[in-house]
Amino acid sequence: METKKNASVQSLTPGLPPCILAVDDDEMTLMMVEHILGATYDVVKATSGAEALAYLAEHTVDLVLLDYMMPDIDGMTILARIRETPATEELPVILLTGDMTPDLEARGFSAGATDFLHKPFFPDVLRMRVARILRYEYLQAHLESEVERKTALAEERLASSRRLLDELVLALAKTIDVKDRYTRGHSERVADYAREIARRAGDDEAAQATIYAVGLLHDIGKIGVPVHIINKPSRLTDEEFETIKSHTTAGASILKAVVEFPELSVGARSHHERFDGRGYPDGLAGAAIPRMARIIAVADAYDAMTSRRSYRDALPQEVARSEIAKGRGTQFDPIFADIMLAMIEEDTEFNMRDTGN
């Protein structure tokens, strides 16, 4: 058994040149193979089928050049042994033969030969045939890892885009709250309550993340409401109230530009609809109100009651609980009102409120 190594050549295995096992009882053929391929590959020479099988049992190679006619074990038998062994069942094998007939070719391919090469062969044909097969094997061997790498890269980019979107949404939400010095953090608290309601209602994590973003931007339309109206300490006039109500349609108009996230505009438009149809801006009732808006509505109402406003202090927890219960089935979807009531009952320390921080 003789080998020739050239470690400077790129290999299927990083750091090593590809290894080719040449099996032929003709020494001259083996010398030709070594001369043609030796500068690029490690060439291992075996002069018998037994020697080749013994080598394969102990070593890993990338391709086998196998003579069809040999005195001890013929090429077809060696090929069958290679295919029967789990470690070598996918190993590419090129059969070398001086007697290429359609019958032989058919039997060879049926037995698992990768390709055939007629002897005597031209050096360039041998080089190209070996390079083509090894290139294919390399792609096959690395396809799974390349797919995994590309998938990980895509997931990383998606996560980065999601983080950027989350940061932009939060920044927008803060610009809304800045206009009302009495309700700092309102949008974030509404988003938190809405996400928890959605979780308890059985929504998956993706849906919970979506309603959190919807909650953050439900009041975006207040950007267009004058500050003196938002912070007015006394009762609003009918005209001023109409201006306040316009924040729903204004918000929907702003967020419609986010075509990849249509839920945002729906939440902004419909969070003041009432379950009994007496809300605004569209007078929707029951299930006609988008589900996310029905969740936002109860979360928004609760936080409005437990936050300090320009015209009153924050209401006690019991008062807020009583108002949610009173609005069950009229102002609020009873399913989401019941979840909100359960959350209030569990909040024995009254942490769900505007703490003024």
Can you tell me about this structure?
The chain has 357 residues and is an alpha/beta fold. Helices cover 54% and strands 8% of the residues. It is built from 14 helices and six strands. The protein has a six-stranded mixed β-sheet, with helices on both faces. Strand 5 (93-97), helix 4 (102-111) and strand 6 (115-118) form a beta-alpha-beta unit. The N and C termini lie far apart (81 Å).
Name the descriptors.
disordered N terminus; 14 helices; 357 residues; alpha/beta; single chain; 8% strand
Mean pLDDT, to the nearest integer, reads: 87
Question: Hey, roughly how much beta strand do the residues contain?
Answer: 5-15%
Instruction: Give the end-to-end Cα distance, rounded to a whole number of Å.
Output: 81 Å
Helix and strand composition category: alpha/beta
- Widest sheet: strand ordering: 1-3-2-4-5-6
Q: How many DSSP helices?
A: 14
- Indicate the percent of residues in helices: 40-55%
Q: What about the largest sheet?
A: 6 strands, mixed
Sum up the overall morphology in one term.
Answer: rod-shaped
Name the helix and strand elements from N-terminus to C-terminus, one letter apiece: EEHEHEHEHEHHHHHHHHHH
How much is the radius of gyration in Å?
A: 37 Å
Note poorly predicted spans. Answer: 3-11
**Annotation, overall tally of beta strands:** 6
Give a concise summary:
The chain is an alpha/beta fold and 357 residues long.
Would you spell out the secondary-structure blueprint of this structure?
Layout: E1 2-4, E2 19-23, H1 27-37, E3 42-46, H2 49-58, E4 63-67, H3 75-84, E5 93-97, H4 102-111, E6 115-118, H5 123-179, H6 186-200, H7 205-216, H8 227-230, H9 238-245, H10 247-255, H11 263-270, H12 291-305, H13 317-326, H14 334-346
Parallel strand pairs: 2-3, 2-4, 4-5, 5-6
Antiparallel strand pairs: 1-3
Helix pairs in contact: 1-5, 2-3, 6-7, 6-12, 7-11, 10-11, 11-12, 12-13, 13-14
